[in-house]
Write a structure and sequence with these properties.
The complex is a heterodimer of chains A (322) and B (102). With 322 residues, chain A is mostly helical. In chain A, 66% of the residues lie in helices and 2% in strands. In chain A, strands 1-2 form a two-stranded antiparallel ribbon. Chain A is globular. With 102 residues, chain B is α+β, with helices and mostly antiparallel strands. The longest helix of chain B is centred in the middle third of the chain and has 12 residues. The chains are: A mainly alpha (322), B alpha+beta (102). At the A-B interface, helix 4, helix 5, helix 7 and helix 13 of A face strand 2 and helix 1 of B.
């Protein structure tokens, strides 16, 4: 990209013009003028999002070989492949902001980049795969449906594509959950245990509370976000509680109560200390996830080199033939 | 678009823009981009990334470095020749009352 990072403050006239475009609901495209801070925030947000899709393959990949039937295995394979695709859509969107994907992947592998804290929790039983599809993808859909209206064109377009595909993820997850919940007492206990472990981390996926969210105001003003973390979290809870009731599962929150006036399911206090610990790298699986990504990258090196060598050989042959 | 540099040793491969055609008779539309070592590889990657659910019946891949785009900053004067010619639109012309099919 032609725009160089600016050491001096942004031109106020350009800034005002930019904000006017945002306020008019226009979408910002890669070559349009944008404040350096807008670009930075988007690179941060989009790369974290892309990394989350990629790391998100690991907890589920863990169960591909142990899926209980061929049907379940095919679905799970397709879902994990989708997550790789989603990572690529968003990396591709991020590259339009003038960053190389290789640079972003390096940041992930050497531990500088963040990704969604949810993927640092282990998948202990088959029921976890159902619950991830239902709760984790469910939460992601709530988030992404709003991001599909983000002011940055390439991000919004990637989100539209992703939302369409993730509905399958959520439904395949809920099918697993509903099947286990209607199964033997042991299956019911297994799925209830998975819900107990995933519920709170799923609520944390929406990020810190509005009172403690340093980036929110700016992202809302630039219409990268249209709803606050707490608004989205509440929306997710309202959608999910009736689904849990429908399959006789309890959510592990004694404070969960319906407020007829606001029509909200009010929930208890989130353990923010745990959230910050996991973000800081001290979750149950942080090290394991990064080690798996590094190994995958290293083990794929020969493929990258072989494809390069093949392409070079083809180029040589076609110049010799000419 | 980002220029395609000569890749370093641990390569991410050059960048290609992907265009998909949704159905017979529809135009090819920009879908996104992929990294690939060569054209054939780019087509395969584009299929895996942008056509997992029958979204395309035809794909184009173009090296990103080959795309030349108009600059948003010059959009005003650049498109101006087309903007001030109202007589290119049918609404410019008056039709006598009662005449149909025009």
């Amino acid at each position: 990209m032609e725009q160089k990072p600016q050491a001096t403050p942004e031109d106020p006239a350009k800034l005002a013009q930019f904000q006017a475009r945002i306020d008019a609901g226009e979408s910002i495209e890669p070559k349009d003028w944008m404040p350096e801070r807008y670009r930075k925030q988007l690179v941060r947000m989009m790369s974290q999002h892309a990394h989350s899709e990629i790391v998100g393959m690991l907890p589920e990949g863990n169960w591909i070989t142990r899926a209980p039937s061929l049907r379940r295995k095919m679905s799970l394979l397709a879902k994990v492949q989708d997550e790789a695709g989603h990572g690529l859509y968003i990396y591709c969107g991020t590259e339009t902001l003038g960053v190389d994907r290789a640079e972003l992947v390096d940041q992930l592998l050497d531990g500088r980049a963040k990704y969604s804290s949810i993927f640092n929790y282990p998948t202990l039983s088959w029921a976890d795969i159902g619950v991830i599809g239902w709760l984790v993808d469910g939460a992601a859909i709530v988030n992404q449906t709003v991001l599909a209206k983000a002011s940055y064109g390439p991000y919004a377009r990637a989100m539209i594509r992703i939302c369409k595909e993730e509905n399958f993820h959520k439904r395949q997850g809920f099918e697993i959950v509903a099947t286990l919940a209607a199964g033997t007492p042991a299956q019911q206990a297994m799925v209830q245990d998975a819900v107990n472990r995933w519920w709170w981390p799923s609520l944390m996926m929406f990020g810190p509370s509005d009172t403690d969210s340093p980036n929110s105001a700016e992202l809302l003003r630039w219409k990268v976000k249209h709803k606050t973390n707490d608004e989205l979290r509440q929306r997710f809870v309202n959608l999910t509680v009736p689904q849990a009731i429908a399959v006789n599962l309890t959510l592990p929150d004694p404070d969960l109560t319906y407020n007829a006036e606001t029509k909200n399911w009010e929930f208890g206090e989130i353990d923010w200390a745990e959230f910050h610990e996991v973000i800081r790298g001290n979750g149950p699986c942080n090290r394991e996830r990064l080690a798996a990504r590094r190994a995958a990258h290293e083990n794929g090196r020969w493929v990258r080199e072989a494809a390069e060598a093949h392409a070079a050989k083809q180029r040589r042959r076609s110049t010799e033939a000419a | 678009m980002t220029d395609t540099r000569q890749p370093p040793t641990d390569t991410q491969w050059p960048l290609w823009e992907v265009f998909t055609q949704r159905e017979q008779g529809a135009p090819h539309e920009h879908a996104g981009s992929v990294h690939a070592a060569d054209a054939e590889h780019a087509l395969q990657n584009a299929r895996d990334v942008y056509a997992r659910r029958g979204e395309a019946i035809s794909l184009w891949v173009v090296p990103s470095s080959a795309i030349v785009a108009s600059t948003p900053g010059d959009a005003g004067p650049f498109f101006d020749p087309g903007n001030d010619k109202a007589y290119r639109h049918p609404q410019f012309y008056k039709v006598p009352r009662g005449v149909r099919g025009l």
